[in-house]
From TrEMBL:
Designated name of the protein: Claudin
Domain of life: Eukaryota
Location relative to the cell: Cell junction, Tight junction; Cell membrane
Name of the gene this protein is made from: Cldn20
First and last residue of the signal peptide: 1-24
Length: 219
């Protein structure tokens, strides 16, 4: 029962990780630059994401521009696009597979099949967490390096936005869920290996026939 509850907790973490991963991929605020200027009424907030750049004006106007050209983008943005999409796909596969392999569901067949499905789903979550952690770390490193560079003007410097933090947290949820699923299946298999089922030995029919034959000789 404890193992089933732990798997259910890991499944909830994985769901939060999947939704956060998709949100971080689509949000436009990976980089944020707030330019207040001399008057706060005319303040402008510029946000840059993986797929679009948006500008928010303090007057209430909001405009976005899609990034159509892939080759014109920096390498870290191209890598972030690819890895984040792979993370979303792997985490979605993990949700489908672990739904079959969890102990609290009636899908997946026998115990061994459910263990294998649960382990495969955990591996998908771990890979999705790694694919989500790499682009957010690389993106944050580029932002910090540009911010500390003295040759770059202040107007061109940015700070990490909410999408980066969402990606970090989602990757952590996916990694924790994957480790829990894999370890729960591994413990069950290890327990079955250390404590094999007892085998009952029954006397063969040949011995019974021989014993009966010997008794007849004494009569």
């Amino acid at each position: 029962m404890a193992s089933a509850s732990l798997q259910f907790f890991a499944f909830i973490l994985a769901l939060f990780g999947v939704f956060g991963d998709i949100a971080a991929t689509l949000l436009p605020n990976w980089k944020v630059n707030a330019d207040v200027g001399s008057n706060i009424i005319t303040a402008i907030t510029q946000m840059q994401g993986l797929w679009m750049d948006c500008t928010w004006y303090s007057t209430g106007m909001f405009s976005c521009t899609l990034k159509y050209s892939i080759l014109s983008l920096p390498v870290y943005i191209q890598a972030a696009r690819t890895t984040m999409v792979l993370s979303c796909i792997l985490s979605a596969f993990g949700i489908c597979i672990t739904t079959v392999g969890m102990k609290c569901t009636k899908l997946g067949g026998d115990t061994d099949s459910k263990n294998h499905a649960c382990f495969a789903g955990g591996l998908c979550f771990i890979l999705a967490g790694i694919f989500g952690l790499v682009p957010t770390s690389w993106y944050t490193r580029e932002i910090i390096s540009n911010f500390l560079d003295q040759t770059i003007p202040e107007s061109s410097k940015h700070e990490p936005g909410g999408a980066v933090y969402t990606g970090f947290i989602s990757a952590g949820f996916l990694l924790i869920a994957g480790v829990i699923f894999c370890s729960s299946c591994f413990k069950r298999q290890q327990g079955a290996w250390m404590y094999p089922p007892k085998q009952h030995h029954f006397p063969s029919t040949e011995q019974e026939s021989n014993a009966g034959y010997n008794l007849k000789d004494y009569v």
